[in-house]
Amino acid sequence: MSSTTAEAGARHAATPPARKGRARLSPLERAERRLGLMMLAPAVLLLCAVVVYPIVELVTTSLRFEHLAQPWMGTPFVGLDNFARAMSDEIFWSSTLNTVIYIVVTVPGAVLVGLGLALLANQPFKIKWPVRLGLLLPWALPLVFTGLIFRWFFEFNQGIVNNALMLVGMSPRQWLSDPFLAFVATCIAIVWKSSSFVALVLLAGLQTIPRSLYEAAEIDGAGRWQQFVEITLPMLRPAIVVALIFRTITAIQTFDIPYAMTNGGPGHSTETLAMYIHKTTIDFLDLGYGSALAVLMFAVSVVATSGYLRYTKRDPRKEA
Amino acid sequence: MAGVDIRQVRKSFGRVDVIHGIDITVKDGEFVVLVGPSGCGKSTLLRMIAGLEGVSDGEIAIGGRVVNDLPPRSRDIAMVFQDYALYPHKTVAENIAFGLRMRGASKPDIEKLVGEAADILQIRHLLERKPGQLSGGQRQRVAMGRAIVRRPLVFLFDEPLSNLDAQLRAEMRIEIKKLHQRFGTTIVYVTHDQIEAMTLADRIAILKGGHLQQFDTPDACYARPSNRFVAGFIGSPPMNFATVDIAADASSVTLGAGASAAVPQAARPRFDAAAGRRAVMGLRPEHVRPASGGEAATAHGAVELVEPLGAETLVLLRVGDAALTGRFPPEAKLRPGDRVPLSLALEHAHVFEEETGRALARAA
Ligand SMILES: Nc1ncnc2c1ncn2[C@@H]1O[C@H](COP(=O)(O)OP(=O)(O)O)[C@@H](O)[C@H]1O
Ligand SMILES: [Mg+2]
């Protein structure tokens, strides 16, 4: 790693300054470069319209007072007041904590379950499509729909979970009205839903590992478990990191499933930051404060995922 | 060390029969090359010896012990794959050490053995690199290092040189031969390249369509091919074949279109078996030469193509209906269209049955 950066630095130092380099471009190269920029322009404009503009809008709103239920107040600039309010808002902290717990539980949960599913689906089945379909189905299901299905699963009187418990002689549980059990139930639903995407990513990764590596390992004397630890896991690392990034980003934004299953309840016990932002802006119409909360969530997202990016750059096949 | 016995081995994938009952006995310390065109079942046979494919029928024994039901790791073999199959995320040292580590060797032992193997293959300076940072030839050496470090009973090679350029291939061929001389370990080596087979093997097993065609020393395969397929497969440039009508007393052969060649007295026994019949005559390019000085021409040929190679010149000739390649001395200056008197060394000719390709009379 360090040697390559040093090399890159040396190469950089050796090349003449950019302007001189440009002067040496042939007319053909210059025309090609101009064409390239022109082809990029629509994408850049689109990005500006759908990403940059809303972010700028969000940040400026977060620095203002803007409450649709109090239009007479106008939209005065209030500096960091909204952020200060968040720091002393108990629900902000509890919903942030809930979000963190969702991340800590469902990201590893989904990756573990997804890895298991991917390994299973990678077995040499005679008929492959039912396995693949089984993997795809949870992924294709809309989130809210998933939430509703699981709400029904965990329902007290007719839910299949309680029915199953009673079948084996256990007493039914108040799944959705006990704070702890409600959290467990929503976590199960989230893991079920998101492990299918993780499994698809990891399955694609598994299929890039050449068979001959396993054959060589078998001849070298490695058993099943050793092959998994010595070959599958390290070869799968880039795919696992990608899956972790995607799962973490979506976990930070956890919304639909708790919304449909418990609507954040009982109390605020399953309410996430995204749900609190939604409530603040859509239900309470407090756009200024909601925007400040969204900015905070965005910042957390960036910090959390940039940690992973360090790992994606490292290709296990190349590094010394 | 140990020999390998392949007894009446068959293999089918589902309904498709790929190996149709092969018998090969590899002696202890012998270098046997399995050779044949692509798809003839060489890799399948090798993978059955390794235990990577099951045996449908028959028996495989290593060192006298039947291994049909043993997993690869219990067979005490090492294999070099065509794509090398190096572990991309491990360093060269870790790659070579892997088999030792899986077998529970101690750290100091591993270090010592890996160092020795690296020295033999001259890759000590590469030990800390990853396979992705190596050239093809270097990867090849690492793959061999991984094989020799365990001192197995048998080395198995599956087309190990086919991903290298011609020069490296020649270099590594020598390297492999040296390794065999050094360790004396039994080797079963798969290739589709007859030159590799000729240069490396103690004995060559020639396969075609899952059938063993001949199993013999390189010299014997060259001098006494058991059928037309072997005759055409071994040797470069390949043997010439011509459909000939043999006179009833075997004194001459007709190559069609009025061209005929006299069969010298000494060579007549070779043609006796098909006397008065039609057969396929095989004649190696070195036995098609220009008639020199006082020598009487046995046939005449029209030059079609001239390929100077420096030390010799290959000349494609038409004699009657037959196209014959001859190895001419480089000073023979010929041009397409020239008519040359030829001396066909029919005492070295091979005669094959027209229908089956079976060798009728073998050169002594
Ligand atoms: N796993 C397999 N399933 C079905 N057919 C196979 C399999 N492996 C090899 N074959 C078939 O067996 C024949 C021999 O293959 P192979 O041993 O790889 O040939 P070679 O190494 O001589 O080129 C080929 O026709 C190939 O298509
Ligand atoms: Mg093969």
From TrEMBL, chain A:
It holds the Pfam family BPD_transp_1. CDD domains: TM_PBP2. Keywords: Cell membrane, Membrane, Transmembrane, Transmembrane helix, Transport. The chain crosses the membrane at residues 35-56, 100-121, 133-154, 180-204, 235-255, 289-309. It is a multi-pass membrane protein. Residues 1-25 are annotated as: Disordered. Residues 96-308 form the ABC transmembrane type-1 domain. InterPro entries: ABC_transporter_permease (IPR051393), MetI-like (IPR000515), MetI-like_sf (IPR035906). The keyword Transmembrane helix applies. The keyword Cell membrane applies. It is found in: Cell membrane. Coiled coil: none annotated. Its main location: membrane. Belongs to the binding-protein-dependent transport system permease family. This is Sugar ABC transporter permease. It comes from Alsobacter ponti.
Automatic annotation (TrEMBL), chain B:
Pfam families: ABC_tran (PF00005), TOBE_2 (PF08402). It comes from the Bacteria. Signal peptide: none annotated. Residues 4-234 form the ABC transporter domain. One of its GO terms (molecular function) is ATP binding. Keywords: ATP-binding, Nucleotide-binding, Transport. The keyword Oxidoreductase does not apply. Belongs to the ABC transporter superfamily. This is Sn-glycerol-3-phosphate ABC transporter ATP-binding protein UgpC. The gene is ugpC.
